[in-house]
Amino acid sequence: MSEVIGLGAAELGAAIKTGEVSSEEATTAYLDRIATVDGDIRAFLHVGREQALEQARAVDARRAEGAELGPLAGVPVAHKDVFTTRDMPTTAASKILEGWRPPYDATVTARLREAGMVILGKTNMDEFAMGSSTENSAYQVTRNPWDTTRIPGGSSGGSSAAVAAFEAPLATGTDTGGSIRQPAAVCGLVGGKPTYGGSSRYGMIAFASSLDTPGPFARNVLDAALLHEAFSGHDPRDSTSIEAAVPPVVEAARNGDVEGLRVGVVKELDNDGFQPGVRQRFRETVELLESLGAKVVEVSCPSFDAALSAYYLIAPSECSSNLARFDAMRYGLRVGDDGTRSAEEVMSLTRAQGFGPEVKRRIMLGTYALSSGYYDAYYGSAQQVRTLIKRDFDAAFENVDVLVSPTTPTTAFPIGERSEDPMAMYLADLCTIPSNLAGNASLSVPCGLAPEDGLPVGFQVMAPPLADDRTYRVAAAVERALTGRDGALIARSPYAVA
Amino acid sequence: MTAITRDEVAHLARLSRLALDESELDTLAAQLGDILTAVAKVQEVAQGDIPPSSHALPLTNVYRPDEARPGLTPEQALAGAPAVEDQRFRVPRILGEEE
């Protein structure tokens, strides 16, 4: 079934719609592929074989009855384990939720089902989405299909690895500081962070609520846009959801015209400390856009230099508050309840045993930043920096339509290299964090392989809130030109299926 | 350099309801100090009367009509509980903790 697995999601959806391929055939092919390669890649925490086949047969039956199928009906998808699913465990890769079966579906989950998509299973991640390498999972280390000694990015590293290893044509992710765009970049995929409030957080286990954003992974721009459209849009169950139509991302992905588009290169998001091959591919891509008719200017956003610092105060502060719900009382792990210990002792023992080191570190950091006496100096100052970053974006978008930068300072780093050094790990999110703090649309598209290590490089496109379509338009232009010249980048991956 | 003492770390652990062991307290004292030193950059940038932003986009509170809607059954709500008794969550004692 390598023909089915080699298809993009849009092509597969079209083939299912015409009856050329059944959803059951496609789903079986992907389940077999997972069985073959996931022992090496370790992208999935749970594979829901029976549920997936049942959903696939239901789509095939609807087609047989003459129902008009949507563009992704019957298409398999890998689902990040941060989204609740009624029929599969949901753990956020934490021991504190081991074996938990949620009583309800996240809105993103429900919309995948409504679109007729087939959920293959739940993907590995950094525990509670805290990390940039997926090494913080309490269960397993996921490997980058381009080089299995390297990280697949994080926190959505199971999703990026699954799509890059052709274990799924599409995957969901969540992006709080770069957790979709960074893994997409280091795995040679397209990964989008929608405008904050453009995709629903209901049923997505919260890390930092003012930053968390669900988004798509795919092997090409059109597929990413189709998935973005399928699960986005207003949700009355999320009070931060925007009451606006989903931006025309699919149309933009098909269009890809950048003639006359004003592109700003952010001076602060490209410096001497970046890997030379990353900078080289980034600059070539900027020149490519210019050759396609875009007007390129350099833009300065001075407060971006403090974005990483502001993020590592704001995100831990929100996490320390959000993770207070894991109290060992209503669901999840309970440790030490021997009849002699108090509720508070049981709570503290459970949390100490159920959370991993990075989660504890962030809870402690957030508790410090929010505590009386330090609040103004840390959390308060970080919120002021957040205002300055928004102002920098607003000023820049008065003169340009999109901003661009490398997605990450380096290509995928070796497993273990940064796991003992939290600050080094945090630097992986340097370029992606400003868009989370400002809530704007942002996306990463592959722009080649770095000459020195042959690993994928990501090109980040940022647009104003609710102008997500611009990020897809620019990504489509880059993809079309590079694929026309070199063929699809992902086809050069050792795990590619033609 | 922002120094965090081991006593401060122990205090934060109590506030965070984390029963950390001795070696975790030592490791975190060093790491939190390093991280706070690095992120103190916000204090250089955030000077003057810049208004703080708690959210990226302007938000107004959202209400829905106060009408009863179907919810979880007691069985569904209790399905993930660590301990259940008489259709309720059974929890360790919460009174007399000062003793």
Number of strands of chain A: 11
Number of strands of chain B: 2
Structural class computed from helices and strand pairing of chain A? alpha/beta
Query: Approximately what portion of the residues of chain B adopt beta-strand conformation?
Result: under 5%
Poorly predicted residue ranges of chain B: none
Largest binding interface between chains: A-B, 74 and 55 residues
Based on CA atoms alone, the radius of gyration of chain B comes out at 22 Å
**Shape of chain B from CA axes?**
flat
Average pLDDT score of chain B: 90
Mean pLDDT of chain A: 97
What does this structure look like?
Chain A has helices at 2-6, 9-18, 23-41, 49-64, 107-114, 157-164, 181-186, 221-231, 249-255, 276-291, 307-322, 343-354, 357-370, 376-396, 422-426, 433-438, 468-486; strands spanning 44-47, 76-80, 118-123, 170-175, 190-193, 213-218, 262-266, 295-299, 402-406, 441-449, 456-463. Chain A has 498 residues and is an alpha/beta fold. Chain A has an eight-stranded mixed beta sheet, sandwiched between helices. Chain A has a three-stranded mixed beta sheet with strand order 1-3-2, with helices on both faces. Chain A is globular, with a radius of gyration of 21 Å. Chain B is built from four helices and two strands; from the N terminus they run ααααββ. In chain B, 38% of the residues lie in helices and 4% in strands. The model of chain B has no long low-confidence stretch (mean pLDDT 90). At the A-B interface, helix 11, helix 12, helix 13, helix 14 and helix 16 of A face helix 1, helix 2 and helix 3 of B.
